Amino acid sequence: MLSSISAWILKSLGWTIKADIPDLKKYIVIAAPHTSNWDFLLGILTAKALNLNVTWMGKHSMFRWPFGWFFRAIGGTPVHRGSGRNYIEQMAELFEQSDSLVLALAPEGTRSKTDHWKTGFHHIARAANVPIAMGYMDYGKKLVSMSDLLYAGDDIAADFDKIR
Fold first, then answer.
1. SS3 for 164?
2. Would you state the pLDDT for residue 138?
3. pLDDT tens digits, residue range 78-88?
4. pLDDT per position as a tens digit, 14-61
5. Confidence category of residue 126, pLDDT binned at 50, 70, 90
């Protein structure tokens, strides 16, 4: 039912989805661009419309009362930045502990306009030994798309050339 409602909302707003969902239990989805909070809502609606159980990460302070339960309910997982462990290790552990996990990340690492992507998603993919699915939002065409898998290699620059 949530899938139908989410699909209906997207369609009512003029959005279409074109997604080749990998037949895998574990992978990372990068979703670009991430330039506003609307991207987050669009991503959650798309995931629900596709019946895709997506996890996303946020700083641990977001998961406190009164909204922590809501963020967890829609797939959020807290990341503790000051605990002496970096988020790459935390996400790799989450993949290891999970039977299935689709982790959605914004490669920019911020909502601000930027001319480059962070490399964290690549490092997580390597540490967890999972592929990266390419996702994007085309606001001009009102299209959300996901396709192509990349298995992260040793050469980040070469991988980023493939991603581009």
1. coil
2. 92
3. 888 765 668 88
4. 999 999 999 999 999 998 776 777 888 999 999 999 999 999 988 889
5. very high
The CB-side HSE value for 116 (13 A sphere, CA atoms) comes to: 4
With DSSP H G I counted as helix, E B as strand and the rest as coil, what are the percentages for the chain, rounded to 5? 40, 25, 35
Task: With beta carbons less than 8 A apart as the criterion, state whether 144 and 17 touch.
Answer: yes
* pTM for the structure as a whole: 0.89
C-alpha 86/C-alpha 66 separation (Å) is 26
What's the rounded mean pLDDT across residues 128-157?
A: 93
Relative to beta strand 16-19, strand 143-150 is: parallel
Contact 104, 136 (CB under 8 A): no
Instruction: Point out which residues pair with 18 in neighbouring strands.
Output: 145
Q: What is the rounded distance in angstroms from the CA atom of residue 83 to the CA atom of residue 22?
A: 34
Location of structure tokens 């997207």: 10
How far is Cα 76 from Cα 63, in angstroms, rounded to an integer?
8
Only one residue has tokens 């809502």, namely 41
Phi, psi of 157 (to 5 degrees): -60, -45
